[in-house]
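Please decode residue identities from the backbone states below.
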């Protein structure tokens, strides 16, 4: 038994050190972007502030743009965890597929907006740099792909799954375009889903005041 412990215990230690290094890189990057602006910071600057080597930096991130979207990567992984944990049956049509994605996206957005100040700083930074806006668009498509994959893994038809995933992302994008207030993000996205699903039933939507 003692030999087994000796053989298995190093891996959790290595994983913990890996997570700590990643967290230091993210924290260092955020501090430097705030102090110097995104264009005034290099990968070397981030590595130095985080007290890691450049090689360690590149084990975690392909470039400094990707550090900006570290939270998005965590949220993508959260969708994977949802897919592995649930036992929800396949959606039989597009309406059911959109309904299935609603709680998933609401949970993701709730997690994203849990730190309102950090959420706002992130999007202020993204809006200031075309290369970050382009990366944001790539991330949005990755979210759509993950949501579609979740439905397909449940047994849904691929065409229905991909369509529903794009609708779900459109609900988020519409709210983001109209204000993107982290304090009201979840409820506004919930309302956007409600409007979409009302279209599918032919129900009359409440009129905006």
């Amino acid at each position: 038994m003692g030999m087994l412990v000796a053989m298995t215990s190093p891996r959790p230690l290595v994983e913990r050190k890996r997570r700590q290094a990643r967290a230091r890189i993210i924290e260092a990057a955020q501090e430097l972007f705030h102090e110097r602006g995104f264009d005034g910071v290099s990968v070397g600057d981030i590595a130095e502030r985080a007290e890691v080597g450049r090689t360690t930096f590149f084990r975690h991130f392909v470039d400094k743009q990707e550090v900006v979207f570290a939270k998005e990567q965590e949220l993508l992984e959260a969708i994977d965890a949802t897919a592995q944990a649930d036992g929800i049956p396949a959606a039989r049509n597009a309406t059911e597929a959109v309904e299935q994605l609603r709680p998933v996206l609401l949970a993701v957005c709730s997690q994203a907006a849990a730190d309102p100040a950090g959420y706002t700083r992130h999007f202020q930074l993204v809006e200031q740099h075309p290369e970050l806006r382009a990366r944001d668009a790539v991330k949005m498509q990755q979210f759509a792909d993950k949501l579609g994959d979740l439905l397909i893994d449940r047994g849904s038809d691929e065409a229905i799954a991909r369509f529903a995933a794009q609708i779900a992302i459109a609900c988020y994008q519409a709210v983001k375009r109209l204000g993107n207030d982290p304090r009201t993000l979840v409820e506004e996205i919930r309302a956007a889903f409600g409007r979409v699903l009302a279209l599918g039933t032919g129900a009359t939507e409440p009129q905006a005041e």
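Observation: Residues 3-8, 204-209 have pLDDT under 50 and may be disordered.
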